[in-house]
Design goal:
Blueprint (H helix, E strand, L loop, with lengths): L5 H19 L3 E4 L10 E5 L6 H8 L4 E6 L8 H5 L3 E4 L6 H12 L3 E4 L16 H10 L2 E8 L1 H4 L12 E5 L13 H26 L1
Parallel strand pairs: 1-7, 2-5, 2-6, 3-4, 3-5
Antiparallel strand pairs: 6-7
Helix pairs in contact: 1-2, 4-5, 5-7
Length: 213
């Protein structure tokens, strides 16, 4: 990643530290990162099993990432100041038009945007239903979507745990999905795109299970 500003420097410093911490708790395996386009707007769509998933995505991608973060985090002293430089707020109870517009704007501006289509952590590790928002953002921005499967972060930081445990982490990036869209405002199309993204994540999960079993 090229460092062009003070913000870039602190981002690079942060993800380097995060990568070091994760590797200190176990091995970190990253596969398929070369599937991420190095330029232009890109959506990284990953499953969500731990609070560690967002920083992990920052450490695993070769480009600076932008995140959609729960709006409550922005009011936390110090953490909120830091987050606002690398993320924008989202209301998890409902998808606001302003959130979709901001996501589309950033993608059309050439940013790499990390989205967790399920909306919240899966406490069982199983894939849950994807929300329509990711399909809407993909349709309106026409950005490539890179599906991602994450395994292991729920073992390092289980639900309710106060300290990091030891476990290996696996991150698998799939091939980009390109949706050739004529009507980006069709709600049924948004649902269809979301389902295709979740299917692609599911296929990565199956591939991981087949190779590790």
């Amino acid at each position: 990643m090229k460092i062009k500003s003070v913000s870039d420097f602190f981002y690079f410093l942060s993800i380097t530290l995060i990568g070091f911490i994760l590797r200190s708790r176990g091995r970190l395996y990253i596969k398929g990162a070369d599937n991420i386009p190095l330029e232009g707007g890109v959506i990284i769509a990953a499953n969500h099993i731990s609070y560690l998933d967002p920083p992990l995505m920052g450490a695993a991608t070769p480009r600076r990432a932008t995140f959609m973060a729960r709006k409550g985090l922005f009011s936390i002293p110090l953490l909120g100041w830091f987050i606002k430089h690398y993320a924008f707020p989202v209301d998890r109870t409902r998808t606001l038009p302003s959130t979709i517009k901001e996501a589309v704007r950033r993608l059309k501006n050439g940013e790499l945007l990390v989205i967790f289509p399920e909306g919240r952590r899966s406490e069982t590790g199983e894939l849950t239903e994807g929300k329509r928002g990711v399909g809407m953002v993909a349709a309106l921005s026409k950005a490539a979507v890179v599906p991602v499967f994450i395994s292991g972060t729920d073992k390092i930081l289980p639900v309710g745990a106060k300290w990091l445990k030891r476990a290996d982490i696996h991150v698998m990036f799939g091939r980009p999905l390109d949706f050739h869209i004529t009507n980006g405002r069709d709600e049924d199309l948004h649902i269809s795109i979301t389902q295709k993204i979740m299917t692609a994540i599911g296929e990565l999960k199956k591939s991981y299970a087949d190779n590790s079993g």
